[in-house]
Amino acid sequence: MKPSSFCCICTDSCAYELVGLLLSLSLYHTDETIYVLGDILSKQYIEKMTPQPRLNIVWNVQLDKYSGLNRQKMEQQGIWSDFQIK
Question: Is the residue at 1 inside a domain?
């Protein structure tokens, strides 16, 4: 059975991991759709990478508030739960 699409969540602190995911999907699921809930920095990072993944990437940029933050920093600011709900 073939998936109809893929999805993930990413902020700039893990954009390098998103590169690995996209390149892997690009090899084994060429031209498939992946929905990415992310921040603008991750989007820009992916748009500048070479080679570009052979995927239909649909961006939903809603995580700018969490850019540059890890779990510990989000917990200190009281926004970890908000991030998880996204």
Answer: no
Residue 63 and residue 58: Cα distance in Å, rounded?
15
pLDDT tens digits, residue range 8-46?
999 999 999 999 999 999 999 999 999 999 999 999 999
Number of domain units in the chain? 1
CA dihedral 44, 49, 51, 52 (to 10 degrees): -10
- Its pTM stands at 0.90
Looking at the chain, the number of H-run helices and the number of E-run strands are 4, 3
**Which residue segment(s) compose the domain that 63 sits in?**
6-85
